[in-house]
Amino acid sequence: MKPSIFEIVVISSVMFDLVLTAHAWVWHDDFHGGDLKGWTVKGKFSRWEAEDGMLKVEIVVEPPHEIVFELLQLKAILGPYDDFTIIVKNIGCKLSNIGIGLGKTFPEAPGINKDFFYIFLTNRIDFVPHLLVPFKANRAPRTLWHTYDLKEMKVSFRSGRFRMYVDGKKRADFEDPDFNRVEIVGFEVVGFKGFRGEGWVDSFTIISPAMGVEPKGKLATTWGRMKRW
Fold this sequence. Notes:
By secondary structure, this protein is mainly β.
């Protein structure tokens, strides 16, 4: 008997975290297995690890730095990215902050750092780098929410429009015409001088109808080990 289309899809989904559903690609990491093969650390003060089905980070900022932003960049799916939604579960922090970073490179920007990010933190949306002479305007709302542990954070992007939802409620909706696409996706952790900061995330999922890509790494995660999202 020939296998049905349904059986073929199920077999493929056991082999790859990147799954072609009826309308969208889905890549999921529940941080089991003790490795971060789909990710790359950018920074020298933070230490990231997958432990007990959680992504954990510790950051200790050394002088003369006061505040440091460091990145755990998604490498399993290569950019640029457009028309996607990221969902993270049980994200929180202590003496630091953590969130989703969406970045783009601007070669014409002054200084050494050409990568600009909107960072969707648990209590605010930040725009970095912070330049003495602003290169471009921050389009995100400058609202401070007193929330540091969230059950769910969802961030959507499509052709310059960003939307953020927290625990099912819309928190932000704004557009930046300079961000016609996203080139860097990952987690950002914020560390402060004099504190040993911590952050944690239970799972990460990216969904897109537009990503016709091949998976890089994490090739043997089964449905039985994947958390529901």
